[in-house]
Every structure is written in structure tokens, then in C-alpha cells.
Amino acid sequence: MKNDQKIYIIGAGISGLIAAYELERAGFSPIILEASDRVGGRVRTDEFKGFLLDRGFQVLLTAYPEAQRYLDFQALNLKYFDPGAIILQPGNSFIIDDPLRHPSKLINMAFSPVGTLMDKIKIYQLTQMLKQKTEEEIFSEPSTTTLQFLKDFGFSEKIINNFFLPFFKGIFLENELSTSSRMFKFVFKMFSLGHAAVPENGMQAIPDELKSKLTKSQFRFNAPVKKVEGRKIHLVTGEDLEADAIIIATRPDKILTQLQGQFKPSRKVVNLYFSLSHSFIAQPKIALVTDDQFLTNNLVFMTDVSKAYSKNNKALLSVSITKPVEVDDKLAKLIAIELSALTKIKAEYFEHLQTYEIEEALPQVEDMGYSLPSGNTKIQDGVFLAGDYLLNGSINAAMTAGRKAAEAVILSLQPTY
User: Where's the Amine oxidase domain (predicted)?
Assistant: First the structure.
């Protein structure tokens, strides 16, 4: 009987792939409708001129519980970032190390100009405090802004401006650290428990691995959905599909008329790639630009993390901009000038490869949560929602939401006697 049930999943991003996986485990054979030519959604990698270009600087946090549940880290051949960061300022730079992971760096960190000695003690205290809490406890705590939490915890303006602000601007893709303190504490805990990593061959390897686990699902690529009415799916091509159940694993306000206007605009990021003869960082660390006069927020040589990102022996540099900026032909030249000011390397040596203007990089979620009852994914009879926007902007949340939507569909299709 299960094989006769028509279950459609709209969107082959992380949520949609997890939903399909759970449906297959229950004996169903879902059909996945994807508007683009491949799986991944916002997690994808392009091959360009011998380089692997992730669409937006993204990392996998290995401590994510859902990632540990669904991903084979060994098969992904994860490559790890060194904990900490490099602070880049015109004419000056210094390294922030994590002495909890590298005790030999304790003395260096104690005298680092990133903040006061009390700041470094408070980082240790915060780390230990969060390790004692479950993820559910963190997300059930009262919410304030990340910036206010940092101030209330007693961190100085110095370390906030030198580290927390540029580092978490790049994670939350907003410039005021107005993101909920719940999300900050969750991400901070994930960094302290695990590692930031990328698959050897780019972030696309994550959805590709999830797709490889699917043996009974049918994919229809280049099949954008125009709208959903009841249990009927209208494709842009004019084709209509009847379903027993539908999981919308993409922005639902674009295809459900009753949800139009109910979602805040997504957060945006601009990501530029440059090639260079060699890395001026020469270690797998993210570099933060603290001077607010610069457009550049953070940069990282992806080839310092995984050599497979380049097939031509050149270094690949990823630069992220979180400020509002006009993306035109002048932008890459302006960023090259900024890089020159930070490194004393001539601007013309930075060869521009590609610029990605990612309009829907992260959802804006007001009431952030860690999980939700599967029944809460139901929007109407036979139609269910999945996506990180239901919880918080993360790969972990995308996986959770996909699993919960599948559970709700499975329960709804069980025969009643």
C-alpha cells in the first residue's frame, strides 16, 4: 500500500533530502521536485577555472547532533579549520588561539591584544557553562540580542570589537549582532565541542552524500513549482500533479498564497573569490577584518583548508561581505585594494574569479528553537513544511526540520481501523 502513496517533496536542499531519507526508511518512495539542476539548495559548489567555489563561505560544525546522525564524516574526508582566528588590520595582524585545545598556546593567548585578561577568563567560563547545558536548555532560555548578552556577561568592548563582532557577523550575516542570544550560545557551544570543517571536495559533497543514500526516491530536476493548492501541485511548465502528501522544503510563501507576506526577507551575503600565487596566511584559519571602514568582513584561503579546492597549484581566497553593497564591476577591484591595504600585496596580484550575490543566504527567524513537534510541520491537510526557517539558520536545523516533516507525513498516512 505504501508504494501507491504519492508523496512529493518540493526542494532538494538539505531538509528535502533528509525528509526523503526518512520516508524511504518507512517504506515510501517519494518524488522530489527541484527547480535547479542538482541537489543542495543553498549548499552547493561550482567548478570554475580549475577551482571549487562554494556559493558563500560555509562550514560544517562537526558537533551538530543531526550531522552526526546523518553524515559519514569519514566518507566526506573532512578538512578542519584551526580553532581561533587571525585579526587583520592595516599594518598589523595577530592570532587568536584556543588554549583549551592547544595548551602550548596558553601564554601567547594570555598576552594577545585581542582583549583583556578577564575577557580570556570569561571565554573559558562561558565555554564551561555551555558544555553543562543541553541544546534544548539553551534554546529554552530567555532571549536577548547576542550583543547585549556579551555585554551582560562582562566582555569588554575591546574583545567584542576585535573578535565577537567580526566573527559572528560572518556567521549570522548581520552587522549589529541582533541575532538571538540562544543562537549565539548554541553556535559557541558547537565550536567548543567540535570543529569547523569542509568536505575535501567542497560543501556540495554534503547534499551529494545524502542523495547517494536514497535508493527509492525519484528526482525531477529543472521542475520549478508555481503554486500548491490543496494537494495539487502546479508546475511552472503547466503540468499539474496530484499528491497524497506534500512536503514543501523551500520557501513556502512563494508557492502557498495564504503565506505570502508572512516571511521576513532573508539575510544576504556577497562572496568574492580571488586566486593568488600563494596564501599569505598559510594556515587553515579564518581571518577577520575589524576596521569598520572596510567592506571585507572575513576572508579565508580555502586551499589552506583543503588543497582539492584548486587543481592548478594556485591559492583560492574567499572574501565575505555582510554590509549592504552594490555588486558591480567595480566591487572586485575595490576589494582587491582593501586586500592590498591589509597585506601590502599589490592589488593587481589578486585575480578575481567570481562574485556571488546570495540574496537568500540565511532565514530571519524571530523565535529561534532547537526542535519542534512533528505535528507542527503541518500547514494544512496533506501539506507539511520543512526548512531551517522553522527553527534557526543552520544545517542542523535544516536536518531536524526535514526529519520532523517526514515523521508527520508517515503518521498522517498510517491506515486507521
Answer: 14-410
The DSSP line for 325-385 is ---SHHHHHHHHHHHHHHH---GGGSEEEEEEEEEEEE---SS--S---GGGGEEETTEEE
Burial status of residue 348 (CB atoms within 10 A of its CB: 0-12, 13-18, 19 or more): exposed
Which residue do the cell numbers 555551555 mark? Answer: 130
Domain boundaries, the chain: 2-42+205-263+366-412, 45-98+195-203+267-362, 114-192
Instruction: Render pLDDT for 202-227 as a digit per residue (tens, 0 to 9).
Output: 999 999 999 999 999 999 999 999 99
Edge-to-edge strand list for the sheet holding 60-61? 60-61, 196-199, 78-80
Cα Rg of the chain, angstroms: 22
Summarize pLDDT for 363-374 with one digit per residue, the tens.
Answer: 999 889 999 999
Q: pTM of the entire structure?
A: 0.95
Contact 190, 63 (CB under 8 A): yes
Q: What percent of the chain has pLDDT over 70?
A: 95
Residues 6+ apart with CB under 8 A from 49: 275, 312, 353
Say which DSSP state 160 is in. Answer: I
Reported confidence tier of residue 106, pLDDT bands at 50, 70, 90: very low
Round to whole Å and give the CA distance between 79 and 94.
23
Helix axes 14-25, 205-212, angle to 10 degrees: 20
Angle of helix 181-193 relative to helix 117-131, nearest 10 degrees, comes to 90
Q: Assess contact for 262 and 365: CB atoms under 8 A.
A: no
